[in-house]
Amino acid sequence: MTNIHAKESFKNFLLGVKATVTPESVRVLRRGYTKKNFVSDLMSGLIVGILALPLAIAFAIASGVGPEQGLYTAIIAGFTISLLGGSRFQIGGPTGAFIVIVYGIVSQYGYDGLASATLLAGILLIIFGIAKFGAIIKFIPYPVTVGFTAGIAIIIALGQVPNFFGLRFLAKDPADAIGKIKLYATSFDTVNMYAVIVGLVALAVCILWPKITTKIPGSLVAIVVATVMVKVLGWDDPLTGHGVVTIGMKNHIPTGFPVPHLPNISIEMMQKVFQPALTIAILGAIESLLSAVVADGMTSTKHRSNTELFGQGVANILSPIFGGIPATGAIARTATNIRNGAVSPVSGLVHAVVLLLIMLVLGKYAEMIPMAALAAVLFQVAFNMCGYRSFIKMFKAPKSDIIVMLVAFSLTVIIDLTVAIEVGVLLAAVLFIKRMSDVSEMEAVTEALKDDDEEAAHNELCRQVPKGVVVYELAGSLFFGAVDKFKDTMARISDKPKILILRMRSVSSIDAAGIQMIEDLLNRCNREGTQLLLSGVHAQPVVALTRAGVLKQLGEENALGNIDAALNRARELLGLPVVDASHEVPQAPTVSWEKSLDKPWMPEESNAAIAEETPEVIAEKMMDEPIKIIENEKK
Q: CA-based, 20 to 30 A from 614: which of 164, 335, 414, 598?
């Protein structure tokens, strides 16, 4: 039997993996792909490919690497994400969300450290996808996301101040915000007004162009206008110009196809960058799934989150092999892709090919782009990214959420994004546990049962509590955060009743600490000669207590469906007449451990009927089916 279960489980696992690794591009082709669809994808991919050029360059330079590495990422990772991902419209590549973490890794460990972290992140994302963590990633607390996103926007904008104002300084640009502010403040006497003019023109175009049309991205128009202006006026001339810095003065954009090569990776380096790699994986997962959700909302479609994580993982493994940096789904480019008529992942593939052709043919012209214009584009990216409306709105939330948001924001700006996410998630979890503990209650309800009309009795005599019986009601989840509160209440029970009833109708879940509390209470009752009864136990606690052996120790006849049944059981134990409360109630099935018991006090509407439909019980039934079939065949 064990072998059959193991084979079935392994077979189901393989089927799940196959479904996960089957990309949306394959599904689209299976459903049928027409010439009209291709034309739509071709036009959309062309526009998004052109848009991706300046953004890929800007994000790479802001991250502390060369512009070619941003282009390689947009080409290789962008192609892979569209080919293997779980969304029809996702456009992948370098994004502003990674600037802070990538800049920090490059500053501390160099590109080899970044390549190691990106590879590790890719492996983690593949594991996330196969393990079906797509839904779990969405459990990152909202205040944490709002906080670190706003913090990232501040860091991006702050990092572009030197390029926008044309500042000059000999010291290395620090990675932390405080160091940047100090350095820029002492260098502000080197402001280049011509660079400022170029930046302001580009920024004005970025802001005003969408009022004219949204078909052609404003950032692309801003880059073209600024580049032409600088070139025509000669402001970039090293001899007679005015010192406006261009990409070509700092970096060289290659005009050849990216060649794969294994980066210098070691086990020691992977150990050092594991934490940043985990941050890249989590951040990439959040960003890509958020982008996919936005695309779903715009198109009334449904992405597959686990497949998307798998595609993102493969993309981040291939990216550093071709000299790239971390990649994820880009919300702005994905939205542009949809608005321009994309119908399938083919548009994403076209975007990557278009970007490659532009790099090969027009790479030398991209070197003419002024750094001030790129800074203006990134200022707009930072503004769009900061989510100031959500940030302000959060101050109307509970105080604990405000604290979490401000901590995540402050740590991102002052210390590090990795620390911000880790501390933010941990703090949010602790505060949530406290909140759940605060709403958990335990009180004596012996006298209040008569007035309880939520669980109405069929006979008023049912609610008369016999002498020697005490009833306590639990409310909330019985978990480790609330157990001490329940224990304190139980410790205050000075008298020793003959029967103690725990009413658990408001306990929806229980964990190991809760199970231990019930077991400790049961042992105490046994020592003091008190009979413990459980009333109104819900599905999950029933299954958990059964598997832990507590119900067997208690006696399954002492776990009752509701308070009327529990009081009748108490009367029977005390030798009093039982009040019939079940004649008006329709019959309902019960779980197997009750079917064999002769309990006239158990009302037919027992919560055990619900327990029969829990995932655990259903799973056990399904696992037993192959065995029953084999046994029947043998007969």
A: 598
